[in-house]
Structure formats: structure tokens, C-alpha cells
Amino acid sequence: MKQFLPFTLLLTLLSSAVSARPAPAIDITTPTKPEHTNPDEAANCDSWYIAAPDGDTCFTISEKAGVSVSLVFKLNPTLRAGCLNVNPGWGYCIHIPEQVTTTSTTTTAVEITTTSTTTTTTTTTTTTTTTTTTTPTTTTTTTMKQPVTTTTSTATTTTMQSKPTPSSFVYDTKQFPPSGGALQCITPSEQNRNPVAVWNEWNFPIAVQHACQQLVGNSKFLAVGNAYTTSLVADTRGFVAQYALQIKLGGFVVTQDVCIQQLSTLSKCRGDNTLTTYGGCTYSPDGNLEACIFPDGTKGTPAPWLTPGQPTQPPAVKHYDMAQFPPSGGVLQCITAKTPNYNGIAVLTSEYTDRVSQACQQLVGASKFLDKGNPYTTSLTDSRGNKVQFAAQIKLGGFEVNQTTCKNTLQYLLWCQIGNPSAIPGGCTYTSDLNLELCMFPGN
User: Which end of the chain has fewer surrounding CB within 10 Å, N or C?
Assistant: First the structure.
């Protein structure tokens, strides 16, 4: 008699066999648009990351797809409002085609028509009958299409406005190549410096604002070539300074805000004391826009917008302390204008991810055991010359912190970004168990 396995046991074995099969491999990226995507993703997306079934965030998408977090935010605006709410199985844009500028070529077909007419007439005459035979007219038309190529080019004419003023010492923007650094100050020991330094105090930002109004108005296209310059009385003593903008690589529309931001960086250039400046030059992060201030050496009548009075010692840069940001306040706490010791300094969002990578490499390397106690700190300098401090502190108990944990946690500070151009004024964030606190403090 045949022996049969009990039915319930058979079912158990079958289900075990099915569950033991490995799940089919799924590519995490695809050039084909998935069924589920967010409606506000980049319209010209040509590659998507498929979110893992066990959960993803914008930061893990960045790491697995090999793209920056800022690009993930740019191509998927929805994630800015819900970085942690990534839908499993949905597609998230990670690439768009590069934009290529081409010269347009128009081909026009010109019709050339040739018409030939042949008429044959035969006349036969006899004494009794006259017969006239006319062969029908034959017309032949031949049409040829001859291509004519027209190349369209655009020429830009830019009028350079300059207000030269007499001076014993003339600076040239070529003295300050961008390869020398993002900020290059004229020092008291420089041979060709003007002997007169302008006040570098409360009127400095007001003078910069008026200079930018004269240079670009609200906005203006600046082309590659000679510097755009203007001169005005820069301080309450009546000393004149020249303000200059020069395009190095390719022309673009410079707004008043960009002009002010670049020239304001020169407030870090100090003369014989902390209240004056002999000027200098500074550059945009891409080295394309050079902005300079050159004391002119002449005197004029102070403008009514300059506040009279004696300058005072500028206040010291305010510093932040990790104790200002207790974890009970939330897993992410951003520095704002209302934060105690707010110093108004921020790191450009475009360079934040690179700075985080450098900081985590210095803080923990590949991995490092961090113990409870005082914070572990490191300092970097951003493209605008500001000192930036990164800090890590264990709150509950020491453990091995790897570089990935350090970077992923600090990336949450991207949510603190403000302004245009986008920048991050800093703050603190924590691991989910509130054991590890990581902070970024610009200006510390």
C-alpha cells in the first residue's frame, strides 16, 4: 500500500520551497520612465532610480545612484518637503540630458524653372488642294532644387561705461589673477598700494550698495572684456574709491544682489588697523566674475547717504555652542536670525556637500570610535573665505561612527537653506536615538 504525506505537511513543504526562492534582481536605475513618479519631477528626465521596497530617503538615493543630494532635490522638488517619505517602488529622477548650444543652419530650396517650346509647321500646296498641318506645341518644364545654406549668428554689442578719476596709484584687475585665491587683499606692505585707505566700517556696505546701483542697476548683461568701473566717495572723510566688475570667462546677467555679495566679501580686507582697507579683488566660485575695490587717493564731498561720525571697533564675530541646540528641541535645529549669537554667515548650498565630505573625513576617517564628553571638531574655509566649524558629540554612550553615518546625518542641514543664492546658515542634527549630535557653524 502506498504511503502518502499528510496534506497539511505537504502544503507546509511547498510554501517553504516557494518562500526560499531568491527574489528576482531589480535594477535600481532605468532609462524607461516607471509607472509611478511624482508629477513635478524634471520634465526632460531620462534616467530614474527605483526606490527600494524596504525604504529609501533622498540621502540614500543620492548614495546608491551616485549623484549629489542637491541634484536629487533639483530634479525631484517633492522631496524638499518630504525627504524621508520616499515611496517604495516609485521612480525618482536622477539625470537630465545636458544642454548643448548649437549654431542654427537653415537650408532653403530654390526652384529654378526652365521652359522650352518647340513648334513644327508643315505646309503642302497643290493646284487643287491646300493642306496645312500643324504639329501641336510641346512645352517641357524642368524644376531643379538647389540647396542654399544660411548660417545664423548672433552678435552682442556691449557699451562699456567708465568714470576714470585721477590718481597717483593705478591698480589693474590683471594684478589679481583668480588662481591666487578667491580673495586677494591689497596689504599695507604692497609697493604699489595707494597711501590712502578708505574706512572699512558701518558705511562700507552702504557704499557697496550705491556702487552696484551704478554698475549694474537692478541687473545688467556684462560681457568679457575691459572692466566695468565706477568711482564714488567711500567714507565720511571724503576719500574716493573705484569699484570694478570684470567678466573672465563668459558674459552673463549680473544682478545687483550678486554684485553686492561679491564686493561685500572685500570687507575682510583690512589695512593698518581693523577700520580701514586698501582694497583688493574677489571672485565668484567659478572664477568668472571678478569684483574689486581700489582706493583712488583723491577726495570729494561726502554723499548725504554717508553717516557722519567716528568709526568704532567692529564687534567680534559671534560664535555658536552645541549647548545652544539641545536634542529635546527636535532632530533638526536650524540657525536663524532669531538664534542667540546669530552672525549672519552662511555656506553656499552648492558647495555644502563637498564641505561635509571633507569634514567627515577629518572627523572620523573611514570610521572612528567617539567617546562621550567634549565635542570632536574640525574647521574648513568656504569659497567666500569664511571659517566653518563642524562638530560631533556623543550624548549617551560611545560607539564606532563611520563616515557614511557622519555624512548622511549632516546632509539633513540642507533643509536649513535660505536666500538667493541658496545658502545654509548652519545648525545641529541628531541620529534617531539622539546619541550622536552633529553641527555645522559658519563663522566659528
Answer: N
State how far the Cα of 269 lies from the Cα of 248, in Å rounded to an integer.
22
Full-model pTM: 0.37
Q: Residue 128, class by beta-carbon neighbours within 10 Å (0-12 exposed, 13-18 middle, 19+ buried)?
A: exposed
All cell numbers assigned to 211: 556702487
Beta carbons of 353 and 424 less than 8 angstroms apart? no
Output the pLDDT for position 18. 36
CB atoms within 10 A of CB 379: 13
The length of the chain, given as a count of residues: 444
Least Cα distance to 96 among 42, 38, 58 occurs for: 42
Residue showing cell 582697507: 277
> Considering only CA atoms, which of 85, 97, 30, 31 is closest in space to residue 60?
85
When pLDDT is averaged across residues 387-400 and rounded to a whole number, the result is 91
Lowest mean pLDDT among 142-151, 225-234, 297-306, 424-433: 142-151
Q: How far apart are CA 57 and CA 92, in angstroms?
A: 11
Cα–Cα distance measured from residue 325 to residue 333, given in angstroms and rounded to the nearest whole number: 7
Q: Residue 102 pLDDT > 70, yes or no?
A: no
Half-sphere exposure of 411 (CA within 13 A, CB side): 25
What distance separates the 2 farthest-apart alpha carbons in the chain? 139
Encode burial over 344-364: b for 16+ CB neighbours within 10 A, e otherwise. ebbbbbebbbebbeebbeebb
Strand 276-277 with 280-283, pairing: unpaired
pLDDT interval class at 169 (50, 70, 90)? low
Query: Cα torsion for 57, 330, 362, 397, to the nearest 10°?
Result: -110
Count the alpha carbons within 13 Å of 319 in the hemisphere toward its beta carbon. Answer: 9
Whether residue 362 has pLDDT greater than 60 = yes
The count of other CB atoms within 10 Å of the CB of residue 200 is 25
